[in-house]
Design a protein that fits this description.
193 residues; mainly alpha; two-stranded antiparallel ribbon; 5 helices
Length: 193
């Protein structure tokens, strides 16, 4: 036999466990109080929500004015499905072609990036005019790198050299880490086809 403390907590109560299940009854009072309070709470919340809805509808009716034939709500389900018109489809296609930016992309953006890189390649690999007066020319990047390698970069005059901290060394870069340009996987796949 197990012992449980009594409700008043003074002396332990002897419980018979030979039956293998709880033999005392559930206290129904607490359950009834909980269910009743929950039902009252739900009813109060529903009443408050209904009151707020009525108040908002009254305010909107007051600000919108009296209902007339132009403000009447229409049930569009009565219209049914509208037949497809080729004229409407052509007009829609015309509107979508001239629709202002930003446009929604029709693919995942890979083609846009490929097009961007193709335009960049045209600028980097060909001679082009920089301005409309044709006074400045953009040269291919390979030739520009050769000219920089031959002539060097202009050096700015240095101000007073600061002494480095004790044990500090100047960083030396022996080779560029990257050329700064990498193709996307989509473009690599397209060039291999």
């Amino acid at each position: 036999m197990h012992t449980h403390s009594n409700r008043d907590g003074n002396e332990p109560e002897q419980v018979d466990t030979s039956a293998g299940f709880e033999q005392s009854d559930v206290r129904v009072g607490g359950i009834v109080v909980f269910i009743t309070s929950m039902a009252i709470f739900v009813a109060v919340v529903a009443l408050v929500a209904w009151g707020i809805g009525k108040g908002l509808n009254a305010y909107m009716a007051k600000t919108d004015g009296k209902p007339n034939r132009w403000s009447k709500t229409v049930d569009v389900r009565e219209l049914g499905n509208m037949p497809t018109s080729p004229d409407l489809q052509n007009k829609m296609a015309e509107l979508t072609q001239t629709f202002p930016t930003p446009r929604v992309q029709t693919d995942d953006g890979n083609q846009d990036v490929a097009d961007l890189h193709a335009r960049e390649d045209l600028l980097l690999e060909n001679y082009t005019w920089v301005d409309a007066a044709h006074s400045k020319v953009r040269i291919p990047i390979e030739q520009a790198m050769q000219l920089v390698a031959q002539r060097g970069l202009p050096v700015a005059t240095t101000a007073a050299a600061e002494t480095p901290l004790t044990g500090a060394s100047q960083p030396r870069v022996t080779a560029p880490l990257t050329n700064g340009f990498a193709r996307t996987a989509y473009e690599q796949d397209e060039t291999q086809k």
